[in-house]
Amino acid sequence: MKDEAGSQEGYLALVLHAHLPYVRHPEYEDSLEENWLYEAITDTYIPLLLVLDGLVQDGVDFRLTLSLTPTLSSMLLDPLLQSRYERRLENLQDLSEKEMERTRSQPAMNTLARMYHQLHGRIRDAYVHHYRKDLVKAFGRLQALGKLEIIASAATHGYLPVLSIDPSAARAQIRVGVDHHHRLFGQPPKGFWLPECAYAPGLDGLLEEQGIRFTILETHGITRASPQPGNGVYAPVYCPSGVAAFGRDPESSKQVWSSIEGYPGDYDYREFYRDIGYDLDVDYIGPHIHRDGIRIDTGFKYHRVTGKGDQKDLYDPKRARQKADLHAEDFVARREAQASHIASVMNRKPVIVAPFDAELFGHWWFEGPIWLDRLFRRLASGRRKIRPVTLSQYLNECPTHEVATPCMSSWGDKGFNEVWLNRSNDWIYPHLHWAARQMEARGKREAEGLTKRAFDQAGRELLLAQASDWAFMINSGTMVEYASQRTRGHLSRLQKLLADADEGTIDEEWLLSVERQDNIFPDLDYRSFA
To answer: What are phi and psi of 66, to 5 degrees?
Structure first.
């Protein structure tokens, strides 16, 4: 993709962060938490792949950066979860057939039921036949074509600024995440997504140890860097370690993220919070919600945003697609104007970095994948003033930048650590720090046989306990019991594993059961925590 006649005035680096906590529960036949994965596959990951594959098929040149966390990729590749997801797809097909029959006397709603029938059929065909259940490989193929750059992330999305009180804990999160990425894609990652976009001075040094070239920070991580960079967030800075830090552009983020000004809140888009899983009689919807009668989202949503209040108009797919096209043009036009203005006061072409949670596109914002498709097609058509790049591509083209130490920052509420460290969840960290020190001590010892297996499994339990998701859930007041139980459960198993190993009283049958339940990172070596 070349600069035509010097018309290009800047770059657009779109970054999608694909992450879910590790929610594999073989001990339950019907796990509520596993639905998070199944919904994300149906609503986001497969629609995203279909859009990107469609662009490739049509010869549309595009560039996108994607972080794929180890917990998510591990679940996508897990045979148990794959088989359970197939059953979920079959259940959706059954429901769509029932819905077409139920709504046959309501033409407008019946049209939507048929839309879902076609959509779920397409999703199932793509998952089973086209991608053969391996979505990680599908993303890898796009990377091999040079259209997508997949970057690494921490092993279990640990909140690194707080974990780094014990450097061995943060180092292990990074090292295991990088090694996992290397095994999946056959090459070391150039970039690294810091969980929750959270940075503290010194973390860049741990990234550099693992060969990482760049990362992405919240806006004020760059604007409050020392010394303050002259180009703001529109060019990266090199940390003292040599790792490049890109900053999030607040304008592009606001256009998509903001609940007030963002595109997803448009009245023509599909309403996320209205679902037949809650609207219809339990005798009818029962086979398609939790087996205990707990109502859950089915994905069948017949209404559009419309406005505030409970009365919602029916969704109009054609109208929504047209609006997504208009919003794609609006986004490109605003970025072009933004780049033109910024370029006039910079000594280089600006890069506008726009990172988002991947699950926004399709899951929360049903039309998000359509918007992405239209966005890239518009960027590839004619003489546009900006062009899409991956972050590695940008650094290759523009290698010289200022040196500064970024400010501690995150993309959580208020911008620092408060979401993950406050009165509601601070009880977690003394236990995590104690466990990290225990694993660091074991990492210096030589072990074999059952003892090594116990130490390895204790390492998995520590990583799972460190996930930032649990503190986030506790802070938000959602799934508090589950998040607390996950934290305590992993730490309890770690404590028993280490005590039994030290005392030579390991119960191999119990160890095997724990290995089967918390089976992430099968190649983990406890010495990673040294």
So the answer is: -130, 125
Same domain flag for 226 and 163: yes
- The values of phi and psi at residue 525, to 5°, are -115, 125
Residue 51 lies in a domain: yes
> Can you give the C-alpha Rg of the chain in angstroms?
24
Q: Token digits for 252?
A: 């592009």
Residue 288 lies in a domain: no
Given the residues 34, 78, 99, 196, select the one marked as catalytic: 196
Let me know whether 384 and 445 are in one domain: no
Question: Within a 10 A sphere around the Cβ of 83, how many other Cβ atoms?
Answer: 11
Neighbours of 514 (CB within 10 A): 20
Share above pLDDT 90 across residues of the chain, in percent, rounded to a whole number: 94
Per the domain annotation, does 121 fall within a domain? Answer: no
Domain count, the chain: 2
Q: What is the pLDDT of residues 43-77, one digit of tens each?
A: 999 999 999 999 999 999 999 999 999 999 999 99
Distances (CA, A) of 403 to 182, 233, 247, 332, 435: 29, 13, 14, 30, 36
Beta-strand pair 64-68/148-153: parallel
Signed CA dihedral, 20, 22, 26, 32: sign only = negative
Type and span of the H or E element at 67: strand 64-68
Residue 52 inside a domain? The answer is: yes
Last residue of a domain, one of 391, 413, 435: 413
How do residues 174-199 score in pLDDT, each as one tens digit? 999 999 999 999 999 999 999 999 99
Residue 4 has pLDDT above 90, yes or no: no
User: Does 433 share its domain with 391?
Assistant: no
DSSP 68: E
In the structure encoding, which two tokens stand for residue 482, read together?
């589950």
- 26 and 165: one domain? yes
Residue-by-residue DSSP string for 193-211: EPGGG-B-TTHHHHHHHTT
User: How far is residue 498's CA from residue 435's CA, in Å, rounded to a whole number?
Assistant: 10
390 with 428, same domain: the answer is no
User: Measured at the alpha carbon of residue 473, what is the angle toward residues 470 and 477, in degrees to the nearest 5?
Assistant: 145
357 and 491 belong to one structural domain? no
430: containing domain: 422-529
Q: Same domain for 45 and 152?
A: yes
Query: Tokens standing for 446?
Result: 């030589």
357 is catalytic: yes
Q: Catalytic pick from 33, 53, 357, 402?
A: 357
pLDDT reported for residue 494: 98
Residue 3 among the catalytic residues: no
